[in-house]
Structure formats: C-alpha cells, structure tokens
Amino acid sequence: QSQELLLSIESTCDETAAAVIERSGRVLGQCIATQETLHEQFNGVVPEIAARAHLERILPVIDTAMKQAGVMGRDLTAVAVADRPGLAGSLLVGVVAAKTLALAWNRPLISLNHLHAHLYACQLIDGAPEDIYPSVGLIVSGGHTSLYLCHTAIELEYLGGTIDDAAGEAFDKVAAMLSLPFPGGVEVAKLAAEGNEKAYSFPRSMIHDEADDFSFSGLKTAVRYAIAGPGRQDFSSLQIPEQVKRDVCASFEAAVVDVLVSKSRRAIKRHRDRSGAGRLIVGGGVAANQRLRRDLQAAADEDGFELLIAPPHLCTDNAVMGAIAWKKLEAGLFANLDLDITPGLQR
Ligand code: KG4
Ligand code: ZN
C-alpha cells in the first residue's frame, strides 16, 4: 500500500511553486518558477507583474510537480494552498487554482498560513525530533521579522515583530543602494564575507528593548548616509569603491544579525521558564544567511538552548514547507470552496 499524498501550492509573493508530498514528509515531485528576472529592473516585486506571471506559470508548475511524482489527481488525499499573508493578486492565482483542482478531483481543500509554513520547514530537517513544540519561532523573510511562541505547528502566538522594515527588505534596499542585483540578500551576504564588519558602526535599533519588536529603517538610513551622505536620493550615478561596498555590507550584516540573535536569545530565555519552550526554530529567506546561522548556533551553544534552522534550500519561498498541511489535515481543519485570500499582515 503506497503512502498518502497531497499537492501543495505556493504563490504568495514572486515564486510559483508546487510540490507532491507524502504523509511521511517525503517529497515525490516539486517545481519552483522564480520571477527574479521580471522584477530585477524595479529593485522590488511589482504586484501586477507578479500576479500575471503566476497566472502564466501556475498550471505548468503544478503539472511538472505531478508528473515528477508520477501521480494523477485521483491519487491525492488533499489539495493545499497558502491563502495568507501575501500579495493579493499573487495569492488569488494559487487559491483559485487549488479550489478548482479540489473541486475537479473531488478532494478536500486545506488553507495554509505562509508564515507558519516557513517555520514548519524546520521540521523537514533530516533527523529533526518528532515533536519540536513548544518552541520560540523566529521568522525572518522579505516581508516579515517576527517572534512567536509556537504551541504546536499550527498554533502560534505572536510575541512581537518589526515596526517598520523587515530584515530581508533591509537587505534588499541596501543591495539596491549599492547597485547589486535583486533580490539583494544573497549578494550583500557575498560581499559581506570579504568586508570588514568594524569599518562602520551602524545602529542596532531596539537591541536593549524588552519588547520582542524590531526596527530596521534607522539602520537602512545609516547605510544610506555612509554611502552618499544625507540628502542624496539618486544612487545610480554614484561610483562606490569595491572595498567600501564590501565593508558596508559586512557592517550592515553584522548589525542585522546582532539584533536578530540577541532578541531571539532574550525571548527564549524568558519563555524557557515561563512556557517550557527550550528550543528556537528559525525560518524565512534571511534564515539562509550563513552569518545568522553561525551566530545563532554560537548563542545556542553558549546559552544551552536547542536550535533548529530550516535547511537553506527551504528558507526562501517553496511549496515543500506546505507539508504543514498534514498537521491541519490531522486536526480536521479543512477549508471550504468559498475560501478567500487574506493578504494583510498576519500576527
Ligand atoms: O521568505 P522569502 O523567500 O520571501 C518572503 O516570504 O518574504 O524571503 C526573501 C528574502 C529577501 O529579502 C532576500 O533578500 C532574503 O530573503 N534573503 C537573504 C538571503 N537569502 C535570501 N538575506 C540575507 N542573506 C541571505 N543569504
Ligand atoms: Zn516567504
């Protein structure tokens, strides 16, 4: 008897993705179509372009994942889709596709919170413990920087988050100031590895604040001043020496990582006693950052908490983290065919 399977669909931002996943978590087929080249010239994701690109790609992407897995609709137990949060037009394409297939194949529909899925990616590490809850969750992505108390995979309590820019957004904006390709996180990290992190002393906003909130816009402004001085808006004509770029990236990355590490550390100290959450789980695109991974591990070793970071290839948006749908299925949490999108910021 073969394993039960589900189809997971992801289209919240600018990646169109689908995966066929066994109940055991094993992935039989998957496909991701990235839109990076479409948004590059705008230094950010353009919602209308993203929605149109999803529309063109969604069926071929699903088809590819299903063919790779060698399955048909009738072989599936359920169809799952991320319905929140994200760009409205992007979400709509995935949700309409999922509803249509669920109806056509007569299979139950499961709606997923994209942020919960990012953290669930921690459970998809080889050898991860069966039960990783309760734990403190850190989500660091292009749109979010938040701390949660995770009671279970699908019951998360918001502790705090950014009051302005997300960490990934700050990486992308700094990359744009330095004329690096979009999305900038990876490019900034590459240059940072060759730079001097002490060259600039950038602010670590709210690092001593007791609240679990973050702020990265002051850091972004400090980088802007360091590169061009106050007042300058147009960076395109600016000639920045390569060593300056490397040093700015290293100093910027160190500032972001310092804040993320020390706030997570404080949150876990507090909740280890209060809620029995002795483990930190980390997901989202910025969790692929090597410096962040290294410094978090050092903090975990020093303070004696357990650390699980999503594997690098499951940090940025993908449909495999939609394996969380099995948890919703087991809890009997199904969506109806009148499922609508919920674009807004989710706590
Ligand atoms: O999770 P994700 O793919 O999309 C959202 O749900 O937002 O995160 C994308 C973000 C981008 O801002 C990207 O620049 C950042 O993650 N990112 C990184 C790295 N890889 C991706 N930031 C820093 N270092 C990296 N290695
Ligand atoms: Zn994401």
UniProtKB/TrEMBL annotation:
Keywords: Acyltransferase, Cytoplasm, Iron, Metal-binding, Transferase, tRNA processing. The keyword Iron applies. GO terms for molecular function: tRNA N(6)-L-threonylcarbamoyladenine synthase activity. Fe cation binds at H114, H118, D317. It catalyses: L-threonylcarbamoyladenylate + adenosine(37) in tRNA = N(6)-L-threonylcarbamoyladenosine(37) in tRNA + AMP + H(+). PROSITE patterns: GLYCOPROTEASE (PS01016). It is found in: Cytoplasm. Substrate binds at I139, V140, S141, G142, G143, D172, G185, N289. Binds 1 Fe(2+) ion per subunit. Its EC number is 2.3.1.234. InterPro entries: ATPase_NBD, Gcp-like_dom, KAE1/TsaD, Peptidase_M22_CS, TsaD. Residues 27-323 form the Gcp-like domain. Its cofactor is Fe(2+). Belongs to the KAE1 / TsaD family. Required for the formation of a threonylcarbamoyl group on adenosine at position 37 (t(6)A37) in tRNAs that read codons beginning with adenine. Is involved in the transfer of the threonylcarbamoyl moiety of threonylcarbamoyl-AMP (TC-AMP) to the N6 group of A37, together with TsaE and TsaB. TsaD likely plays a direct catalytic role in this reaction. This is tRNA N6-adenosine threonylcarbamoyltransferase. It comes from Rhodopirellula halodulae. The lineage of its organism: Bacteria, Pseudomonadati, Planctomycetota, Planctomycetia, Pirellulales. The gene is tsaD.
